[in-house]
Amino acid sequence: MKTNNSDSPIDELLRRSLPADPPESLDDSLDPAFEQLRRQLDSEELPPTPVADRLLFLVSGLHFRISAAASCLVLAAVFLLGPSRELTWAEVVQRFKGVKTFSVTLYQTTNPLEAPDKTELWVGEHRSSRVHNQGRVFFGRKGKVSKVFDVTSRKEIAVAGLSARELKEANLANGVHITRMLGDMKELSLDAIVKTFCGKMTYSPPLPAQSADIARDLKVFDLRSDRSTEWVRIWTLKSSGLPTRIRVWDPRRGDSIEAVFDYSAPQPDAAFDPDRFASDIASKSSLANRLYHLIADPGKQAVTPGDLFHETGYHMPEVVAMGQTPEGVVWIKSKRARNRKPDGGHFFGFGRLTDEHGQEYLHQFRHHHSYEDVTLEYHIPFDYGVGYRQPTRFTLTCWSQPISISQPGEIVGSTNITSWEPVARLPAREGISPPTTNDLLATLAREVRHREDWDRFDQLVALIAGKAEESRPAYIRDTLIMEKHSIFERNDQAFDMAQGLYVIAKPHLGTNYFGHSTVLREYLRGLTRAGKTAMVKATVATIYESLRVNRPEQVKYFVGNVLFTLRQFSSLKNPWALIPPSALDDPEIIEHLRQSGVRQTTSHHEDPAYQPWRNHAAKVFSQLQDRPFPAPVTILTDLPPFTQSDRTYRIDFPNRPELQLLRLKVKPSNLLFYLAWEQQQKAVPMADFKNLPDEPHNLTIVVRREVSSMDLYTHVLRSFNLVVRSTKIRRPVWVAQYDGRQLPNWRTVFPLSADHLGSARIRGSSSRNGITELLRLFAQSANSDLDRQSGLLTPDHVVIIDETGLPTERGPNQSWGSLNLSSGYAFWSGDEGTKLGREWFKNTFGITFKEEAREIEVLKLARAE
Amino acid sequence: MIRSVWRIVRNEDVARDVMQEALVKVHKNFRKIRKHPNPSALILRICHQEAISYWRKEKRRVEESLDNLNGHSFPDRDPIPDKSLIAAEQRMRIIAALGRLAPREAEAMTLLALEELTYPEIAAAMQCSQSTVRVLVSRARQRLRELLKTEKPSSLLVR
């Protein structure tokens, strides 16, 4: 051991305090580097100084305990612990070649003041790819687009054959271009990727940017053009030699592309499978779940609401405090109150309260304190003020409280409560006074009105005190009464109330349309019935202008609702003329109307699509100007039919208001169906066309204005020498029977859920979901091959006979809504769908179907004698 | 090389980084090192230079992971946990103090005290005379005594 004859305590302190044994892991970390060096030395040209010479020098020249193999590691570290400080572009390209899978997020900015357009790209084995852009998912393989899906509609989009302009207009250009770019590159090299970014810039290998040496572990390369101001910058990690970021920038305009690379664990094969994606997203309920379906996070973190839900599931809230007011209103404070749903939505607290007497309560969510995760909810007894029985036990049920008819609620769990604070006032929250008795009554009355339980409604509104102009509950009361008048078609009374309420609502409509939309609707209806269209137009214009300034987000709903209201009046030939022109030019409003099912934004009378029909009609009118038409219906056979388009409508004869011209393109079977429909399906239309022709006819008809549809169809059939005969036949039928149980509140009844069978044959909701409608729709779905134009049945089709005894006609204090059984409907075709439908009827309503042979009345076509 | 770097930086990732820099320098100056009368001393000097230079450039404390305490004991006995923490703090103070020395003083001191090279070897490595080495070592010892005697750990951070 060497000595320096030094007895300095400082030297001893240094020796003692800084021992020289490094951790084994430091040595161990060099082993893989050594292996990689071996491979690299085998495949690459040696650096200028022969490795062997360096090894010889190192082994002989140094005094430290490293194995002979590790001596190579000393030099291997030069290349492999990290590339040399002088990392070259060639090394970076080489490293990237070894990468089989990676992902890139691209941010493209054309206007620096606007948000960039984001594209995500995953590249898998064999150059399979998946691109996300603008809500679309593009699957590709070796640069060929295999399938494209729109996440919002869940539908596949056909892109084959679309021109560049069409792709751009459909916002598909970016996704398609990036997918194809992967095929345009002969090899997926970094040079090729950078060349693609360069666009029209002349490509040359990027050079190290010395001035941009911003961090010890980053190496920056630049590529500049001598012909333009654009430049490309690539950031690479020294340790791995892989690029992390590429930026293309044009300082002239400020537009740029930024690409951020990720080299995490590869995505599973399923992530690149378009067929799997297509079949799965049909059942995915949120956009995030659909967009990132099958994308895996390498760190096992959840990437979608569905993934997070899979990890956490639902949990029961915990009651913190509970009380009941003297009137019977129950309030509950619960903690751990927020539950997150698979679609990313959430619900709070319990949501449902029942007692041992079976009394029903209306749930009202009041408040959720996000930080403390505490919810306050109320439950108002439906028998409030009318024979409410004090319970001794409550059952709190936590359920997912859905608002969509396609998502039935899921029960998380229940808990029984036998003690609470009696005679306890409703708690205030954060300085806000709790609701008054009138407030609660108004809330209950609103719910009862929606259920169309009019007897109970009348009781409740009689309990709400005050004047509409002085009290919000009283205003709500009067609005609900007005609605009842409207539903029962007591239009004069509805309009009388609407005029008074409109005076109260008017100052607020321009800033809070939603809060007074019902009053406005009745007011406009009344004005329209009275023929005061100028007042309608002025009122709509005033509110529109005010909303545009104060509440622009409500404008499209306002215009849509007004249009919907006015279109119900056939006396208004052109309701669109009452909407401000600028509203009908607004793309956002047009899109909202389109999504709401309003395809037309002009009347037939002004829509250019109907101009060919109007031109044809004008020629016909000129030829028939003086011809008399005494018969109710005259089929014109001496004039050529109209064949230019299917856009026609009943058009008035000029100067002869008693006559109209119409075109009818029908088969006899269509007319049979219409006739059966007009008879409200008291008899079933059946067809047997072995001996009867069922060919389409294109007829031009002059009809007197007072002729009914039934008479028109009957007359037309007669012209074919056909008549409709009623007859009785014996055939198998399903007899619907009801076991008499108490039916649930229809608003809490959700349609059948069977998405695992694919798309429902029939799904929707309407204002009429009573027994007649539900059985008709169920039969329609069971007869999936039924010709929907004719609706004609064959002996093999299902016929349902309603013997449930449930009301099909409204009583004196009942509206059509009073007859509802469900909030919506959904039925699937096929044996499985039909079976599930029968189970739904049985489990939900106690309605079963007994199959037997019965004699039923049918309508048939026959030759006229 | 690894040991000499480890003595000063006491952090695996930093040690790898510093060794990388040292090896690059070794590689770049390979021909010169081959011709040097004491190549190993020169290489050790390079390692120390890089380790101490790392301190100065990054201006941050060397934090010793508590994990590194495991198995790294004083020569005579395994410290009990609380004493290990004290030892770690002392190491940090010393490393910080080394960082406060003039570069050539720190080089001379570490080559002498840690690598136990002789004055002639150090002189050859530093390409100076032996008397210069003695002066550098003397100044380093004096300065270290002052720093380690009077200052609290936090103020020994390299600025």
Architecture overview:
The complex is a heterodimer of chains A (865) and B (159). Chain A is of the alpha+beta class and 865 residues long. In chain A, 34% of the residues lie in helices and 22% in strands. Chain A has 26 helices and 30 strands. In chain A, strands 6-5-4-3-2-1-11-10-9-8-7 form an 11-stranded antiparallel sheet. In chain A, strands 12-13-18-17 form a 4-stranded antiparallel sheet, covered by helices on one side. A 4-stranded antiparallel sheet of chain A has the order 21-25-23-22, covered by helices on one side. In chain A, α4 (51-61) packs across α5 (68-79) and α15 runs antiparallel to α16. The N and C termini of chain A lie far apart (132 Å). The relative contact order of chain A is 0.05. With 159 residues, chain B is mostly helical. Chain B is 70% helix and 0% strand. Chain B is built from 8 helices and no strands. The longest helix of chain B is centred in the C-terminal third of the chain and has 21 residues, at 130-150. Mean pLDDT of chain B is 71; it is low at 59-81 and 151-159. The interface between A and B is large, with 40 and 47 residues.
Which quaternary structure do these chains form?
Answer: heterodimer
- The ordered H/E elements of chain B are HHHHHHHH
Question: What is the helical fraction of chain B, as a range of percent?
Answer: 55-70%
**Major beta sheet of chain A, specifics?**
11 strands, antiparallel
Tell me, what's the shape of chain A?
globular
Task: Please indicate the percent range of residues of chain B in DSSP E strands (runs of 2 or more).
Answer: under 5%
Radius of gyration over C-alpha positions of chain A, nearest whole angstrom: 38 Å
Radius of gyration of chain B: 16 Å
User: What structural class do helix, strand and pairing data of chain B support?
Assistant: mainly alpha
Write the layout of secondary structure elements.
The complex is a heterodimer of chains A (865) and B (159).
Chain A: H1 9-17, H2 24-28, H3 30-43, H4 51-61, H5 68-79, H6 89-97, E1 102-109, E2 117-123, E3 128-133, E4 136-141, E5 144-150, E6 155-157, H7 164-169, H8 173-184, H9 190-198, E7 207-208, E8 218-224, E9 231-237, E10 243-250, E11 255-262, H10 274-281, H11 287-291, H12 305-312, E12 318-324, E13 330-335, E14 338-340, E15 346-348, E16 351-355, E17 361-369, E18 374-381, E19 394-399, E20 411-417, H13 437-451, H14 454-463, H15 472-487, H16 491-509, H17 517-529, H18 533-550, H19 552-567, H20 581-584, H21 587-595, H22 611-624, E21 633-636, E22 651-652, E23 659-666, H23 668-678, E24 684-685, E25 697-704, H24 709-719, E26 722-738, E27 762-764, H25 771-782, E28 800-802, E29 825-827, H26 830-845, E30 847-863
Parallel strand pairs in A: 24-30, 26-28
Antiparallel strand pairs in A: 1-2, 1-11, 2-3, 3-4, 4-5, 5-6, 7-8, 8-9, 9-10, 10-11, 12-13, 13-18, 14-15, 16-19, 17-18, 19-20, 21-25, 22-23, 23-25, 26-30, 27-29
Helix pairs in contact in A: 3-5, 4-5, 13-14, 13-15, 15-16, 16-17, 17-19, 18-19, 19-21, 23-24
Chain B: H1 2-9, H2 12-28, H3 30-35, H4 39-58, H5 81-100, H6 103-113, H7 119-126, H8 130-150
